[in-house]
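Appendix B. Chain record.
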Amino acid sequence: MHFLLLELRCECYLISLALFLVSGDNDFCPGGFLYQNPKESSLLLSLGSHVDVYFPPRKRSRISAPFVVSGVAKRQPSIEILPDECLFEVFRHLSGGNERSACACVSKRWLMLLSSIHRDEICTIATTPFVEPENRSESQKADEFAQSKEKGEFGNLNEIKPEDEEFQVADSHGYLSRCLEGKKASDVRLAAISVGTASHGGLGKLSIRGNTSTRRLTDLGLKAISRGCPSLGVLSLWNLSSVGDEGLSAIASSCHSLEKLDLCHCPAITDKGLIAIAMNCPNLTSVTIESCLNVGNGSLQAFGRNCPNLKCITIKNCPLVGDQGIASLFSSAGQTLTKANFQALNISDVSLAVIGHYGSAMIDLALGGLHSVNERGFWVMGKGQGLQKLKSLSIASCRGVSDVGLEALGNSCPNLKVFGLQKCPLVSDNGVVSFAKAVGSLQSLRLEDCHRITQFGVLGILANCGGKLKAFALANCLGIQDIDFELPLASSCFSLRSLTIRNCPGLANMGLAMLGRLCPSLTHVDLSGLPGITDYGILPLIQRSGVGLVKVNLSGCVHLTDNLVAEISKLHGDTLEILNLDGCKCITDVSLKAIARNCSLLSELGVSQCGITDSGIAILAGAKQLFLRVLSVAGCSLVSDKSLPSLVLLGKSLVGLNIQHCHGISCGTVNQLLEHLWRCDILS
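Structure tokens predicted for this chain:
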């Protein structure tokens, strides 16, 4: 009934307003009558003595489809006889956003007409003359409306509530944020957002995530946004095959405040739409284009020449982007670009040479999957001496990276603090050690899938890092083998706080013990996936740390025992916050007893696939000084329904509990846990 009353109220109000507009009142329409003969207005607005129709109390009933009570079909309500031109003129005279939002709820026709009104066309004073919106005839608008209707792009209007959309404040300016996913993304919903945001402060951020079910979103939806949301600052479009240059050009023509643009898997968008954005949005600071197969060099040239505030750019998997685009971008905007990410592009050594020469403002640079770049490209980029301000560098899956190029980069980046190298088969110990010596200011180093790096390279890095290295990570490096030789104490890396070695099966006790002697100040240790180590290898590292371990991950080290856990809890119980022992099959309730007695600050504990029992869970629950936030006992076959009281007691502080594949815990117990631990996320 609410929408019935709203519909009737809007009809009466608009009929009165329409009569006022066609009455010849010069205060409202200084041009005089819309019709030369005022009597002809009765043909437009027929006012009968009664209306012999009945509208059932349906949500958002359509005026154009009444139910006949008397058995004789009556003509359409007078408000539906109004042509689009007249309704447009009526709607643009509505006094505020709330009134327009209310009218948008009446019918699809009204909603689409309201969304076709540009902000500049809305009357603010009564003397505003009649205008033709956007230089388009109303017949053209009607054609667009009909085309959308034929394609089924309107969806269900009952789902659209322009005034009741769940908006969130996007920034300090009070603008709103809206995110649409899947079936919710449609032209009619964007039209509703365009109309509804006017009375909520304006739209600042729009994010649309499409999928295979997103079929009702076209350029018409973006056109509606462009007309009603000039304050739009952030636009993100993902997986939208039906949105193209026309919609993007409409955004460019009206949303001049646009600062961030993110496009991913939008095959219909080409250089034409992006050039329009570049030429009309001077405030653009960040651009991300991923897997847009029809975007090429023209877009990058336009961004470089027309966007003086551009600071961040990401281009991934765009095969039409080549050296010409990269060269033009950096030669024009190299003094403002501070962050760049280029992956899977058809660029050569030329692009890297240009980046190395013109990237004077570059702080963060990521390069990946550049298969056409050779060894000379990275060497020339380093020799360009333009990356003096670079602080973060990441290189992945680039076969052209070699020891020579790496050393040249180290010499040209004196302020580099973070460096990552992944899947670069030509890099060896000599390259990484020379790089570490040349940089001097390196604080974080990560090497992954670099199989020519051995333990000599690792020890060389730690001994020549300049005393500033804080984090070192080594993952999936098959060249690491167990060796043992004496190193002078002067080689110790006292600055290192975090050591990560994952899935390096060749590393065993001797090599790990040597690393322990080199790193006396560790607080974070991750030695996961090292099946060859035992208590003997880890104990020197644990005992050597003098500042107190905070986070320890030993998952997948299948030969560790309770003795090691007891030593860790004894030496570092006052500082330890996170302990992961998942997959350590030799760990039993003895370890839980040591943890409960000594680790007063522990918040996360993982003992999945370990040999713990109900007694161990009871020990944890009885520790008064222990306040666990996350507990994982997945795959512990000896934990049963008897642990229910203990888990409920632990649940007073838990926010996460993993009991998956605990076959001793029945469904009934799981249901009771869900009932008692309603604040805790339970995986079962």
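Further analysis of this model is presented in Appendix C.
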